[in-house]
Inverse folding.
């Protein structure tokens, strides 16, 4: 049985002398493990199509519960990521998040396109001299790699059905207030009049100024093509990156070694 589909290679493991197991994120089947025979040979016709972080069109054989590559054609390669440790470690973190949260043989609506857009934005940040400190994102606004991480984490939470409720105060429904509190464990915001420490622990609440709240609302309510096109000051960018990480990892209930490595190299 042959299956033709598009996907991004988000993981690979060597097997035998010349072959690999590769993990592919697809729209139709989520993340699937595929045997890529002889792709480690220098003259392999499928080596480029099965390289890490390559978006390709695959024709797959399926025998019982195993997939193997019949043929593959590259559509776009994010190979520039490998030139910078910061970008590559962040892409690896994205891949780990996707592998952990995507079930095999189940549709992953919108996730493939979102990952492709995110890797493209991350790759653009590597085209200058300094990926982590002097990159250009979207329509020319300066943003840093940790900010790409923050946007990915918050938007992914929405795709997974873990989206925080950022529309208004959860109790009085105030849309704006001088001081808004974001409670991580509840995924809700409370205005200064309604908030109390009893709602959360010390490390699960954050004060959101108006700029931070606008940015988080923009990420949640914007289409994928626009989520990386916003402005935020340096201090707020650092706070945003910290909040989104706390929120997603709290609700996933675990950490990731690739995230730890990213923090070391960035």
């Amino acid at each position: 049985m042959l299956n033709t589909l598009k996907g991004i290679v988000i993981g690979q493991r060597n097997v035998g002398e010349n072959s690999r197991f590769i993990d592919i994120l697809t729209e139709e089947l989520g993340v699937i493990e595929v045997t890529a025979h002889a792709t480690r040979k220098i003259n392999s016709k499928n080596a480029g199509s099965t390289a890490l972080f390559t978006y390709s069109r695959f024709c797959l054989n399926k025998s019982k519960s195993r997939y193997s590559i019949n043929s593959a054609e590259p559509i776009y390669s994010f190979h520039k990521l490998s030139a910078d440790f910061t970008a590559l470690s962040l892409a690896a973190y994205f891949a780990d998040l996707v592998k952990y949260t995507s079930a095999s043989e189940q549709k992953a609506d919108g996730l493939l396109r979102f990952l492709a857009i995110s890797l493209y934005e991350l790759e653009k940040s590597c085209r200058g001299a300094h990926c982590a400190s002097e990159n250009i994102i979207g329509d020319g606004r300066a943003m840093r790699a940790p900010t790409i991480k923050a946007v990915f984490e918050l938007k992914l939470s929405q795709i997974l059905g873990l989206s925080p409720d950022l529309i208004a105060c959860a109790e009085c429904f105030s849309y704006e207030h001088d001081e808004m509190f974001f409670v991580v464990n509840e995924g809700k915001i409370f205005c200064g009049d309604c908030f109390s420490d009893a709602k959360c622990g010390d490390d699960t609440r954050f004060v959101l100024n108006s700029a931070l709240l606008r940015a988080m609302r923009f990420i949640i309510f914007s289409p994928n093509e626009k989520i990386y096109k916003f402005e935020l000051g340096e201090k707020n960018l650092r706070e945003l990156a910290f909040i989104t990480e706390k929120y997603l990892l709290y609700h996933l209930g675990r950490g990731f070694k690739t995230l730890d490595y990213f923090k070391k190299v960035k």
In short: DSSP finds six helices and ten strands in the chain.
